[in-house]
Specification:
The complex is a heterodimer of chains A (492) and B (187).
Chain A: H1 20-32, H2 37-63, H3 78-102, H4 108-132, H5 160-193, H6 197-206, H7 214-247, H8 259-285, H9 294-324, H10 337-341, H11 345-357, H12 365-368, H13 371-398, H14 413-436, H15 442-452, H16 454-461, H17 473-476, H18 482-491
Chain B: H1 2-19, H2 76-85, H3 97-107, H4 109-112, H5 121-124, H6 143-152, H7 166-184
The chains are: A mainly alpha (492), B mainly alpha (187).
Chain lengths: 492, 187
């Protein structure tokens, strides 16, 4: 059995002596088991944060936007900063599940499920902000081109804010469908493994009657590929459209043609950082270290390094163009000499430190493969990417073309409370997800077990046969080789 | 069976929506943000004033810009004085008889008749009696007296100064004189 060739240089993606059955057991364990104390503690904290944020949102909507720290010059601050930040975080999920699928990256299989969940939960958080930052959110349905009694008054399709509506809603729905399609075989696995009647009923409903026939799998693969092909341009266009909110304006520092690719790179940069933050914890608490290995973390660090490099080049470009344009207004943009020395110097240097200097440490292999350091860097990048959006929005607005309009921005507790609330909501969703959803696409991981599993690699490399190696004694009894089987038959 | 239930549910929802609307009262509103005026609207009610209405009478003796006083009294003496001395401030080029006809037909013809012969609609239907002809020699109306009558009214006729502006009154005066000449056959 040496028909399969895999380069010996490749490290295993599934480590330990795993069989198919082990994968089902390991993936099913958090869902079929009971939550422990620490889960409840973290969940309660997240829930409290969410409820606090909800209170802040209700306070804002019922009292008015004036409870935020916005002023007449700076009409966008934490609201849109958080919006772009959350949308950006969401992008890693689709990148992992779609782009890496197109590139046939097998390592995506252990992380794609959680990354997509993160996408969906992050987009939900992002989707809150366009609504609640409205002065009259109860008229938000006016952004939709619905035939109406105002002489069929429609929206203006020239505004990137309207494109945002289409981009975000399409992004959310496509991601959701893509995610759910991938979940069907895994829900079916949980359905078949659960013993409690209520749980079985629930997963029967969720799995849509998946029975795993050849034709089903054939179409499943096809749909996955088509959706990946659709999601890839989507992931690039969504954050491009978000960047158009700024790039199509005439505000110095916003009006920049580099924004679309730069925002997308930044989105992937921050998204992967969030994936790292979550998965480093999750692999530990859910005992999935054999599936989300150090290799996965290193691969993701490499993507972070690449996109961080792209973002850094964009920073340098912005800084250079700020000087090269010769426009005096460009001296106060978020990446300029004026910003570095102005009243928002701390935000400028936070950006440079978090997004440029700290990620550079990942060039060192030792640090790249150090889980603790990766976790720290990922957190720092999340903070840095928040500052990037904050700088673009607030620093650029604070010093516009007319000096009489120059001002500073001071957030109120409501601004901060809503942001904390979205973080709480995100973790409420993610924690619930981690306990009820198969967090690893076990069906996919099973497809790479024999090619990339440590056990099978070892068998192959030692020149032994893989025949029967997948049989699990717990489910199929002891494997008997062909000769032995004949022997048994003859004896009978 | 299932689709029947669905149709029924939709029907019930629709009926319950439409049955909430009553024609005798204003309909329900969704978020009436700027539906009610914050500022005072002219004819609305208001507790801010003693008589409960926004429209307050201006103080006695004040003259608004673009307006003038009418210095003839509301009495027989005033009427006679106006008949003798009051002349139209409009010359022939300023009188638009087409416009005057429109005004006359709206405000005057209902009693006086479109020809000024005292045979208006209300007279024909005997709702009102005793409307004189413009060529009544006993009255011998002229522009000053017509204006005085439009301004103050006379006998059964009420004042029309609230319906017509000063220029419009003088235009109607010119039109009435025109009708009078047509009735007398001098034109």
């Amino acid at each position: 059995m040496s028909s399969h060739y895999e380069a010996p240089i490749r490290e295993p993606l599934v480590i330990g002596e795993k069989s198919y059955h082990d994968i089902s057991v390991d993936v099913g364990a958090p869902v079929l088991g009971k939550a422990n104390k620490s889960w409840w503690i973290v969940f309660t904290i997240a829930l409290v944060a969410f409820l606090w944020g909800l209170g802040c949102i209700i306070y804002t909507v019922s009292t008015g936007i004036g409870v935020w720290g916005l002023n007449k010059t700076i009409g966008w601050a934490w609201d849109i900063t958080n919006f772009v930040w959350w949308v950006g975080i969401g992008h890693a999920g689709t990148l992992i599940s779609a782009v890496l699928l197109l590139f046939r990256q097998k390592w995506r299989m252990a992380v794609n499920r959680s990354a997509e969940a993160m996408t969906i939960f992050a987009v939900v958080q992002a989707g809150l902000f366009p609504i609640i930052h409205m002065g009259r959110p109860w008229l938000a349905y006016w952004v939709l081109p619905i035939p109406n009694q105002f002489g069929s008054l429609w929206v203006n399709f020239n505004s990137p804010l309207l494109w945002d509506v289409f981009a975000i809603s399409t992004y959310l729905s496509v991601s959701l469908v893509f995610w759910w399609t991938g979940l069907l075989p895994d829900f079916a696995m949980i359905r078949d493994r659960s013993v409690k009647p209520f749980q079985k009923k629930i997963y029967t409903l969720l799995s849509f009657g998946w029975s795993g026939r050849t034709k089903d799998w054939q179409r499943f693969e096809e749909v996955s590929l088509v959706l990946a092909g659709l999601a890839t341009p989507l992931v690039l266009s969504v954050h491009t459209i978000v960047s158009f909110d700024f790039a199509t304006s005439v505000v110095p520092g916003w009006h920049s043609t580099i924004f679309p690719p730069y925002f997308v790179a930044g989105a992937i940069f921050s998204g992967f950082a969030m994936v790292q933050t979550l998965l480093i914890v999750m692999r530990k608490v859910s005992n999935l270290e054999d599936y989300i290995t150090l290799l996965h973390i290193e691969y993701m660090n490499k993507v972070i390094l690449l996109t961080g490099g792209i973002v850094s080049i964009a920073y340098i470009t912005e800084y250079f163009i700020g000087w090269y344009s010769g426009s005096s207004y460009e001296n106060y943009t978020y990446l300029s000499y004026g910003a570095a020395t102005g009243p928002y110097w701390w935000a400028f240097w936070a950006l440079i430190t978090c997004n440029f200097i700290v990620p550079l440490t990942l060039w060192v292999k030792k640090l790249r493969r150090n889980i603790m350091w990766t976790f720290v860097v990922a957190l720092v990048i999340n903070i840095g990417m928040w500052f990037e959006r904050f700088n673009i929005i607030v620093v650029d607005l604070s010093k516009g073309r007319t000096p009489s309009g120059w001002t500073m921005f001071q957030p109120t507790f409501v601004d901060i409370g809503i942001f904390i609330g979205t973080i709480g909501f995100f973790f409420v969703l993610f924690l619930l997800y981690a306990r009820t959803f198969p967090v690893i696409a076990q069906a996919e991981v099973k497809t790479i077990l024999k090619s990339s599993g440590q056990r099978y690699k070892r068998i192959r490399e030692s020149g032994e046969s893989l025949a029967g190696a997948a049989i699990d004694e717990r489910t199929s009894g002891k494997y008997v080789s062909g000769e032995d089987a004949n022997q048994t038959k003859n004896n009978e | 069976m299932k689709s029947l239930i669905k149709i029924l549910v939709i029907l019930v929802v629709l009926v319950s929506f439409t049955s909430c609307k009553k024609d005798s009262v204003p309909n329900y509103q969704y978020m009436p943000n700027m539906y009610q005026s914050v500022g005072y609207e002219t004819y609305s009610e208001s507790k801010a004033f003693a008589n409960g209405v926004e429209a307050q009478v201006s103080p006695e003796g004040t003259i608004a810009r673009g307006h003038s006083l009418f210095e003839y009294e509301n009495s027989t003496e005033g009427y006679n004085l106006a008949k003798e001395t009051l002349k139209s401030p409009l010359d022939s080029t300023q009188v638009d008889l087409d416009n005057a006809k429109v005004l006359f037909d709206i405000y005057c013809a209902i009693c006086h008749g479109t020809k000024g012969d005292g045979q208006g609609n209300l007279v024909k239907r005997e709702k009102i009696l005793g409307v004189p002809r413009y060529d009544d020699p006993a009255r011998a109306i002229d522009e000053g007296s017509i204006y005085h009558v439009i301004y103050y009214g006379k006998n059964a006729m009420g004042s029309y100064k609230n319906q017509l502006s000063e220029k419009e009154r003088w235009e109607v005066v010119a039109y009435v004189l025109d009708l009078k000449q047509k009735l007398e056959g001098t034109k």
